[in-house]
Amino acid sequence: MKILLVNDDGINAKGIRALVDAFKGEHEVYVSAPASQRSGFSHCVTFFHEKINVREVEIEGAVKAWAVDGTPADCTYLGIFALMEEKPDVVISGINHGANLSSDCTYSGTVGAALEGMMANIPSMAVSLCSFTEDYFKEAASVAKEILPVFMASEDRCNFVLNVNVPAIPLEEMKGIRVTRLDVPRKYTQDFHREENEDGSINISCISFPDDEAFTDGIEDGDITATRNGYVSVTPLYEDMCHHDVRKSIFSFENIEISYCN
Known about the structure:
single chain, alpha/beta, Stationary-phase Survival Protein Sure Homolog, Chain: A, two-stranded antiparallel ribbon, 7 helices, globular
């Protein structure tokens, strides 16, 4: 297969290099990744606001690789439509340094890049390592390699993103794989730093991390619950943001009479 690897941690991140090493030889591997760190960019795209600089780089094991001065979703879009001579058979985003569980998926550039692949009708996976400090990228890449053929065998593979979260433990300690849903929303610690400028304006920087100690009551089939218990979590994600149960209960809106404002 032709595999397009993307991420949000940047072209030099350990996670994307681990995926190259895992898939090279058996598949044609292409890399389109941000030139620098782009975590938290969600599904942001550049559109027509500015030009995007793309530079070809050498990555051992990759047929071609490009450092893109854009967002993770830009990397996917450009990789599919502008950089590769033929469309890829699959897009794999990651391996993210840190989990993308529950409400993380709203912010995640890793997930956003995979969603961009799905919107282009390409089977797409997002893969994350559930740690900001541990270095189990080879293990996570091995898990992704085992999951890929099962994912590609699904008839619906173009209709959802497979969000894979791998616990940061040795392979022999992993208990297996669980098909999960997004768990209860995570709480985040936030540390703000302010700097006053001479003109009276303020520079504010925010450091935000999941507050794992605040997570106590997860859903039995939730993704956080699974990874905490030593399982790899695989969650099908879709772009439909409509709350269908609520939609069925709010038809009273249809009785509102609209009139012009004076």
